[in-house]
User: Fold these one by one.
Assistant:
Number 1:
Amino acid sequence: MTEDAVIGSLPALEMRGITKRYPGVVANDHIDLDVRRGEIHALLGENGAGKTTLMNVLYGLARPDEGTILLDGQEIRIAGPSDAIARGISMVHQHFMVVPVLSVAENVILGAETMSGPVFVDRRKAAARVVALAQRFGFDLDPEARVGSLSVGQQQRVEILKALYRDARILVLDEPTAVLTPQETGEIFTLLRRLAADGRSIVFISHKLYEVLEVADRITVIRRGRVIGERRPGETTEEELAELMVGRAVELTADRGVSRVGETVLRVEGLRVADDRRHEVVPGADLEIKAGEILGIAGVAGNGQDELVQALIGLRRSLGGKVTLAGRDVTGFSPRRMNEAGVGYVPGDRHKFGLILSFPVYDNLILTSYYRPPFARGPLRNDAAILESAATQIERFDIRTPSAQVTTSTLSGGNQQKVVVAREFDRELKLLVLDQPTRGLDVGSIEFIHRQIIAKRDAGTAVLLVSAELDEVLEMSDRIAVMYRGRIVAQLDGRTADKAEVGLLMATGGRDTATITATPAATIEETRA
Ligand code: ATP
């Protein structure tokens, strides 16, 4: 065996018997994980299984109660993130840590400056290194570009470049594809394979089983803090992985059944909306949703979907147009008035609009109803009713938390999302507006939430579903509206729509419809040229 082959077969990283306890939960229960050189190792597990905790232990953000970490066979103690980085361990976060006003190269260098004297940074040398690294790994990035002007996928590459600049040999990516388009996902996978071929090790956390099967060399599944199994992609299936994760068989595709459509509930006419920079990103949207119908909006992120939804719900002022709810003009209503008018809302950014993380779980469950009976008795809070309702929702929506009293920030990402969903779904609604309702959720929770959405529809609620997951839009929607550059460019029947066709409409806005051959022209109703 060559020296390289020997090193290749040795684990670059070993985590042995890692145990981490928090009040009321064992987040990691004697976890063993080994990652080889040049390997893409996927970490799978349901929401709250302990994946992030294990990676926080590796990155020095959480101190384990038991267990050891070995790097290239040597036992190490990681004092904190800077110590981890110094040892070649880097983390690419979901919420990027980039400075929008700085250039790509400046962002990469920031915090790891090359010193050419006691105080001066040799920027030229550093920038040249950034360019060389970007070229070597085929990053499609202009080092001079301002990071704020880059797409989400490009900003993520800046984060990866930052890690490489710091000589990361072990890279942890926590749900890197949750915010990416399918094309960007493909690009990031190509990049990860190049990094692995260069001898680096990658730990990849994802809830998307088909992605894990596509990109990983090995998969470790954890459930409730314990390692449940290890598989290679060739010897397993999505179904088996789902069952390992959740502990029961999971339906991976939703059965939307037949919708019984009633009267028009939501009518949007000529709605014009600007973004934070006052650019009119929605120059006039027209939509209609009937009772008992799910309208899905398909579109590449950043095509005005967020602004449209925020204007609809009263979180953003519209520049013009009209919104009617069950015949009543609700244009310009505040979020609270919309809520009282019978509108439920699951926001895309749960931290900004959905939750107050420093509040206990029970308070977040009544965030939009605390001032109403039974939760308020005159000016007083009815704590007994609040806690009783919280206990029911935690049970019904399977929110994994030691109790309703814990601070919401301590819940895993997926369980925070379930808190928002429980609050918004658990009452009678005329309209339910869902923005990325299953982002970050495990397959079991997605199955559950999809069933809840269908049940709401069947109870006569009109549902607006915005999702970056094209498969979700295709599976769930009775009708699909494709949004491109702020306009609804096409509306299709959800049952007959073809994935390639919708993808093409999303990417081109329909300018290229001549190449769409799969569907008869009659099913594409062009609402705007
Ligand atoms: P998800 O897929 O939802 O992100 P996860 O597998 O990453 O889930 P973790 O975030 O590791 O899950 O959470 C594991 C458990 O540890 C959860 O029960 C969570 O509530 C608990 N936990 C994590 N961090 C803390 C903390 N700082 N304080 C208290 N409990 C915590």
Number 2:
Amino acid sequence: MKATLTRNNHSVTVPTGIWMGTQCIGASSGQQFPVVDPATEEVLAHVANAGSAEWMKALDLADGVATTWAAFADRKRSEILTALFHKLTQRADDFARVMSFEMGKPFAEAQGEVAYGAEYFRWFAEEAVRSAGRVNSAPAGTGTIVVTREPVGPVLAITPWNFPLAMATRKIAPALAAGCPIVVKPAAETPLTMLLLGEVIAEVFSEFNVPSGVVSIIPTTGAKDLSQELMADARLKKVTFTGSTPVGKTLVRQSADNLQRSSMELGGNAPFVIDEDADLDLVLTCAMQAKMRNGGEACIAANRFIVHEAIAEEFTTRLTHRMSEVRTGHGLDEGTTLGPIITAKQRDAIAELVDDALACGAQLTVGGKKPEGDGFFYPATVLVNVPAQARILHEEIFGPVATVTTFTCLDDAIARANDTEFGLAAYGFTENIHTAQKLAKELKAGMVGINRGAISDPAAPFGGIKQSGFGREGGTEGIEEYQSIKYIALQ
Ligand code: NAD
């Protein structure tokens, strides 16, 4: 069960079955679903469409190996994670190519995602042998308090299409480091990257004699049924999700019956506040990173540029110039710096937000027009003088559209930055240390970049507050999401 994807004389072959542990199998129903190249609208491959029989079998396997996997020495699990880091890195271009095909991102960006995604294996290989408890004497002199950490047990991971590799490795790596088996459900738009990872995992697990079932990868179009059935089973101990806030809320509700642990990485609506003393060269570089990384299809993408009136004109002129240099095309074609949007539906949602802003009185300085022809493309777009009531200031854009509004008083800028139901990322720019401290303290988000446009780091805790969810991925905090705390009272 394989498919070969080819463009510009480069090919990559990917598995198209279900990874039931280390076995790649077809769906018992015989059903498949198509995976489409969003730049051409052509079908890239047909993938096995898992149903109830498959995902319940994956949970049976995970539950069956949970004790054995938890008993693997920490050092052994660390070595396995290190091997995964190296194998993935060796095949970096294959992974990058698959992501450019199925998700659309430019090849160079896809290579960046492979490096970033692989790094979670290396980081958690190091954490696997460092995760510790504590010991202290009871203050009343009644004995000793010993605190240990244990793996929570079988995990379900549901991942989105925007970062098909990294959003999964940041869940798989800490789960494995903690000693948990994991069932992964990739987004139906982009299952191929995960299925290729399944091949790498099967090779490494065979070298280290890891029992089949520690990782299963379940492609399906039946996400709703999968989560309902798996979470109704008390053997599943945790769900970890990256995606939209409404689906996150559904999963939290579903987790109530069995009180499953949950981590939710949900939507964002990041503000990017630029004070009048900011270094505009740095601001422009960071603005392009924060807005255009992944074509704006990122939960930490800067949506709202809130700029001091004194520099707003220069900033807008320079941002418009940089956005007009962006070249749209197939992710695997030379010179492409902006790929397509993932689906026609998602592209239309972006166009609708832009049209609504224009109807409210905003003006375009570049872009804003859906191109003719194949592929779900939308151009790099800048909107200025966006009125407060425009939907685009309140909803996640998830595309290459920047909005610019101005301020004269920093407190007002911060209040507007925080005037959102989301609280994932926020950015602040200034050369003044006091303003920097104020922005760091008062911007209400799980992550704040000060004079930084790229903030993701496997060594840092990624996550949000408010409607952006809870739980952290990466950092020393990331492994704790997969551990239960046990207190032992010693005489
Ligand atoms: P989504 O939340 O619908 O899908 C994310 C994942 O959840 C996919 O694997 C999907 O198959 C699965 N899913 C969907 N419905 C489910 C259900 N009822 N039960 C269990 N799993 C389910 O997101 P989307 O449709 O891909 O994108 C829509 C919006 O979500 C975007 O516009 C963006 O706002 C947001 N989003 C956020 C992130 C992020 O990184 N936080 C990533 C992708 C999308």
